[in-house]
Amino acid sequence: FDMNTVGSCILKNCTAEGNSNYCIDENAGGSNIRGGLSAGFDCDRASNVLLEDCVAIANNPQPGGVASKVTGFYASIFPEGGYIENIVYKNCTSLNHSSDFPGTFVAGFLIGENPPTTIVINSNQIILEGCVAEGNVNTSNPGNGAGVSFENWTTSSSVQNCIFKGNGVGILVRGENTVSNLFKNNEISANSEYGIADFTQNLNSYAMNYAYNPDAIENYQGLPAFTPVRTWQIGFAPAPLDNNRTLDPLDNISVSN
Fold this sequence. Notes:
The chain is an all-beta fold and 257 residues long. The chain is 0% helix and 46% strand. The protein has strands at residues 9-12, 15-17, 37-44, 47-52, 55-57, 69-76, 82-90, 93-95, 98-99, 105-111, 121-129, 132-134, 137-138, 145-150, 154-155, 158-160, 163-165, 169-173, 182-184, 187-189, 194-198, 205-207, 210-212, 218-221, 229-233, 252-256.
């Protein structure tokens, strides 16, 4: 589904399965088609879009193709620069996007971009509500894949009440200008690298998330200072609360074996 430059659009109960470009990344010496993008739903340079109850399944490069980005849902405007805003994903599902090429980035939902410094991309008010991302992995480089990835210049956006299972990273947040985003009440499990990883060193908000990733490096990585996290190792009593503090409804829960 190609929604490039759309100014107002609603899609409901749509499925994109097995769609792809024959992508040969320009860095591999071939032609570069759509920036090496393979996606199910492409909201490039779009605004005021609602996708509800939509499903993206295995929209991977064709055999012999190498994409720089593989994703179920894409919202960005690289390489042109500019703005995307008011994109809402409600109860959408992204499953089984993959690549075995180490340099390919794989995500269930890919928001924003890491552009050259001469290009500014502003992704504002991008909302994921009640969505699921499962099995989105780079099999050769697990850290180069995520359930959802907020890239540079993504601001004032949110991910709430979602499930991220069996991806490389559950929720990945990066880019020096990615700030003022909210991640709340999400379930993150069985991801291989991190549950949630924030590499921005910015003030993004995390509350009421539940992370259980037995094989991950860490459940939470790089969250802002004083983000409330409550830990529990299965088979043992939860750690005592500090300074007689009661359980805070904002606590992020970290569960380990």
